Amino acid sequence: MEEKTNMTNCRPDRAKVGSFVAELRKEKGLTQKQLAEKLTVSDKTVSKWERGGGLPDISMLIPLAGRLGVSVSELLAGCRLSGGEIGLRQAENLVQSVIKCSPAKPLRAWKVKTKEQPLFVICALLAAVSTLVIWKMGLIEGMFMPFMSLPMVLSAAFGAYFCFFAPVRLPDYYDENEIGFFYDGIMRMNMPGISFNNRNWPGIMRVVSRWCAVSMAARPLVWLGANFLLKEARMPLGMPVLMTAYMLGLFVPVYIAGSRYR
Predict the structure, then answer these.
(1) Residue 233: its pLDDT value, please?
(2) Which end of the chain has fewer CB atoms at under 10 Å, N or C?
(3) What is the third-level CATH fold of 14-101?
(4) What is the phi/psi pair of residue 9, to 5°?
(5) How many angstroms separate the CA atoms of 172 and 261, rounded?
(6) What residues does each domain of the chain span?
(7) By the 8 A CB rule, do 205 and 160 touch?
């Protein structure tokens, strides 16, 4: 399908781009949801593009064009182009127009529905109720509080971030370079030995979200067992050992998920 187009204006037509995306998606035999999953965005975002409600974010141009089997210039022109139909200046103007129209903020996890979000909420409620029961029963003692409170706070903080606030897609420079650290506001992750990229990032988000949710719900019961064992066995190093085990339980799954796609 070859289509001629007038490139004098060099501004992307949202309706034309959206119609072209829908046409190419159907040619690939993909639903909006399937395309969204491949791009780690919501199906509502794909629907918005196809309805002409907005242009893809600048970070999505190459992945979207690649999934649909066209060039970025063709995607922005809204049609297939012959070899000499668009020059470098016109292509640059198209990209610059998209940059100006693209939202500055990345798509956050709370805008994309996942199985981990309700799991986290349920586990948080279970943790709160069981902690209250333990406190009412007078089973909490000062020397064992750090093992219960600190990991629960860490699980709640990390879990809430990755379930609701983490960007669903990393900037493109993570794919172009081997970067073992992740910065997002106050959130810091430094993982020597693995590289964060958009191939392993969805898996890392799932692993951290699920582990934090489950560990948060299980912490009160684990604390009761540890409280009994440490008192009865009089293990002076028991608390550091348990805290170390907790941290390993978080970072080992992250390393496994991150190592799948280097």
Answers:
(1) 47
(2) N
(3) 434 Repressor (Amino-terminal Domain) (1.10.260)
(4) -75, -40
(5) 15
(6) 14-101, 109-259
(7) no
Paired tokens of 31: 């639903």
The per-residue pLDDT for range 86-103, each reduced to its tens digit, is: 555 555 555 555 555 554
* Tens-place pLDDT, residues 148-158: 567 778 888 88
Rounded average pLDDT per 10-residue block, the chain, 262 residues: 43 84 92 86 85 80 85 82 56 56 69 90 90 74 56 85 91 75 81 85 91 85 67 52 68 80 60
